[in-house]
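Hey, weird one. I pasted the Mobilization protein sequence into the form twice and got a warning about non-standard characters only the second time. First submission, copied straight from the form history:
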Amino acid sequence: MARKSIEERLAQLDAQRKTLQARLTKDERARDTRRKVLLGALVLHRIEDGNAASADYLRDFIKRELPGFLTRETDKALFDDLIGSDKAAK
């Protein structure tokens, strides 16, 4: 059996590195998404079931900050119950 040349071995290692990097990137994205979902779930839980003071604080914060954070109308529509629609504000 012939030995692989150095160039072939480097190409194989480079392909393995790219595969591992892609897997790492995918895992990082999944972790980031899970963190966002859980944080959002906590905020919504506190708004719905929390004590009045923390629920009011969170509602006010979201109403003040979220419209400037969201850029797409479809995203804003998802939070219409928390921030109100542009049509209602006009």
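That's the output from the first submission. The warning seems to come from a hidden character in my clipboard, not from the data itself. The helical segments are 6-49, 52-69, 73-78, 80-83, 86-89.
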